[in-house]
Amino acid sequence: MPHGIVNDPHVFVSIDPSGIVSITAHRSEMGTGIRTSLPMVVADELKADWSKVRIVQALGDEPRYGNQNTDGSRSMRHFFQPMRQVGAAMRQMLEQATATQWGVSLSEVQATNHEVIHRPTGRKFGYGELARAAMDLPTPPVESLKFKPENAFRYIGHSNIPIYDLFDITVGKAQYGYDIRLPGMKYAVIARPPVVGGRIRSFDATDALKVPGVEKVLELKVSRAPPAAYSPLGGIAVVATNTWAAIKGREALKLDWEDGENGGYDSAGYRRQMAERANKPGRVERNQGDFDKAFAAASKVLSAEYYVPHLAQAAMEPLVATATIRNGECEVWAPLQDPFGAREAFAKLLELPIEKVKVNVTLLGGGFGRKCQSDFAQEAVLLSKALDGAAVKLAWTREDDLHHGFYHTVTYSRLDAGLDPSGKVIAWRHRSVAPTLFANFKPDPKREQSIELGLGLADIALDVPNVRVETGEAAALTRIGWFRSVNNIPHAFAVQSFIAELAHALGSDPKDFLLEIIGPPRKLELEKLGLTDPLWNYGDPYSTYPIDTGRLANVVRLAALRANWGRSLSKGSGLGIAAQRSFLSYVATVVEVSVDGQGKLTIPRVETAIDCGFAVNPERIRSQIEGAAVMGLSNFIGEISFAKGRAEQGNFDNYPVARIDNAPTNVRVHIVPNGSDIPAGGVGEPGVPPFLPALCNAIFAATGKRIRSLPAGDQIRV
Amino acid sequence: MSIELTINERPYIVDVAPDTPLLWVLRDVIGLTGTKYGCGIAQCGACTVHVGKDAVRSCITAVGDVAKPVTTIEGLDAGGNHPVQRAWRDAHVPQCGYCQAGQIMQAAALLAETKNPSHQQISDAMSGNICRCGCYQRIQSAVCIASRGV
């Protein structure tokens, strides 16, 4: 993790003489609640009164704050203990300052609720009175820190702290990237090449310049020399006095594009090619036992193929960034998941030392991985430069968002299993064909890379002696990007659907069969898995976060219990179950569906069990899991498809997402209780992967119809 | 062209083309950024405001056609304590929060007309408002809570 972890209270905490404690949130807030939850951890160990805590959003500055790239469900996982250290250290500094002030022994003073008490005399100092003296002390070494015992936590684990921005959100004062306004600011939109790698041949701005409010039209020239990484696409920018004028001006442009080498990208043809590759041997990524031999000896075999299309993050706040350059210094305000990565990109673009670039992180109106890529903010910086440093807000419309995405990949999977006469699975092969996100960073490897293999493909826990995982070739013909849960979505869809299909073929109960194939409680021994590449394990040590089948089976049992699995259901109703270890947490979901005589789907109830290690903010864990079910349904109905290299969907009229009238609104969340000695796992993403297969397994239970290819389209009415 | 508007009980005169959507007048000209852009084609509801008593999508409402006073999220209640706003906080509805101004304005208009809406009526009235974080179940609860306080 670049720039690692910082745990210095001098960096994260300051106390003013009135006693107000300011705590810096260094991770980006996109809806998970992390901007509240991490400072809450500091405040608890600091024994601060939450009503006297203010949260300050950090600038993009990793050398100062440690890693800020808010993705991979890593914030709590990596910063729970460091933030405890920050709070405990500042608390001890306050106690030390008091002891020094009164000339008493440190053992006689104790911090309580925002004050330090001298126990023998009952004398007290408020935190504000001690602030200066405490903050001047050196940071005590980590080994000397005394942490609260769990039963002394006031906020951690208590769900009693609302998100910091709650009031402002309900009155329209919370400030997102789209809400930035600077004096004299210009508004701009860009017409981008409709095909990735395309470029402008010629353009005519005569009519655009006649639109009232349009001030300037200019070509945004960019270098997309490989690796293109997150560099902008270039295009024609329209600069105006307000957003609407810029949009109207862009509509009036006459544009002649050259499409380039991706102009032939066509989803239907591409899918046929992927299917062919999935039906041929690929690169072996895991080879445990001898699949071929066991498969040949099987008394029964089963195969199935699954398809998950490209998806768009479609955060409610489209991409936007505001930039200005004054006196050789650039300042940016933007909803960035990776503010320091963005800052490095801006400095490079402007050929400025990084100290001359300042990045302010606004609230993010959703992110879901799209705002990890800073292309949109780089556009704003380039545009400000082209306008001699003028303040400019570069806005994306929804159409821009869906047409110029860093999309979720597209995946074609083929699974084969061989059974022995007793019905035990003795051979398992999973072939996965998907273009890789890493084509952004190196010559296209044309197959899933180590990180993607570790997202529920090569790392699955199966009590099967002969397992082979292969990848097939698939070139990236558009930009593949981060998407909440990433490749776990298609991998879990294929694996967990196939397990239910095997259960059906055997006449077994799907929950019992799922538990059977997970097998007895054990921590998988990596060297026995036959992995070609070392296991990524979400970037964390396997010794801390092993693949623990006991924890996986436990969430399966818990979800099934809460769903009253096995109960009799009326005709047209059914339950489906699926489970996935992802982002170092374990989640199982039971979806209940009902399909009426007209083939219309409803989802009356969802029961989800999550084991995410120690649960720091259970209330926000519940909200993430509730939302994961909704996004899971969106993943069932949405598709970004390509024709002639162009994304065919442009807005919510043809890129449907779940709405309140079809989404699950009875999602019950069960958090496995763990002590703080069990390391925190991820929360933002792990709820999503099991939902799709659990839904499709439920639809099968209700109707006998097996959905293997997404989007649902006319297979069922949603 | 000068257009007179009443927004949150204050008079404004704005100089814009009459076909400019109310959304962009609110946000870029007047500076009331609580009302959000999400789609521009009345598909997501993020831009919902009240014109008179009606919830409308300001992204497709030409400012020249606005004949009644406009209420935005900033003007729904002086202290931010409209029953819907309080219910939103009691139910901890928001995640990222971006769509919530539109959700709250839509819910407030529903409750002004239907005091005790059923689950189905809430679904129907709120189905034009998208939340990508997926706060729908808490929106259902919050509208019920608010219906007891309107």
From TrEMBL, chain A:
GO MF terms here are: oxidoreductase activity
Q: Which InterPro entries match?
A: Ald_Oxase/Xan_DH_a/b (IPR000674), AldOxase/xan_DH_MoCoBD1 (IPR008274), AldOxase/xan_DH_MoCoBD2 (IPR046867), AldOxase/xan_DH_Mopterin-bd_sf (IPR037165), N-heterocyclic_Hydroxylase (IPR052516), OxRdtase_Mopterin-bd_su_IorB (IPR012368)
* Top-rank taxon, per record: Bacteria
Pfam families according to UniProt = MoCoBD_1, MoCoBD_2
UniProt xrefs under SMART domains: Ald_Xan_dh_C (SM01008)
Q: Identify the residues that the record assigns to the Aldehyde oxidase/xanthine dehydrogenase a/b hammerhead domain, covering every copy.
A: 171-261
* Name this polypeptide is given: Isoquinoline 1-oxidoreductase, beta subunit
Organism of this sequence:
Bradyrhizobium shewense
Q: What is the lineage of its organism?
A: Bacteria, Pseudomonadati, Pseudomonadota, Alphaproteobacteria, Hyphomicrobiales
UniProtKB/TrEMBL annotation, chain B:
Q: Which Pfam families does this chain map to?
A: Fer2, Fer2_2
- Cite the GO molecular-function annotations of the record: 2 iron, 2 sulfur cluster binding; metal ion binding; oxidoreductase activity
Is the keyword Oxidoreductase assigned to this protein? yes
Q: Give the UniProt keywords, A-Z.
A: 2Fe-2S, Iron, Iron-sulfur, Metal-binding, Oxidoreductase
Q: Where is the 2Fe-2S ferredoxin-type domain?
A: 1-76
What InterPro entries does its record include?
A: 2Fe-2S-bd (IPR002888), 2Fe-2S-bd_dom_sf (IPR036884), 2Fe-2S_ferredoxin-like_sf (IPR036010), 2Fe-2S_ferredoxin-type (IPR001041), 2Fe2S_fd_BS (IPR006058), Beta-grasp_dom_sf (IPR012675), Diverse_Oxidoreductases (IPR051452)
- Output the superkingdom of the source species: Bacteria
Q: Does the keyword Oxidoreductase apply?
A: yes
Can you name this protein?
Isoquinoline 1-oxidoreductase, alpha subunit
Ranked from the top, the taxonomy reads:
Bacteria, Pseudomonadati, Pseudomonadota, Alphaproteobacteria, Hyphomicrobiales
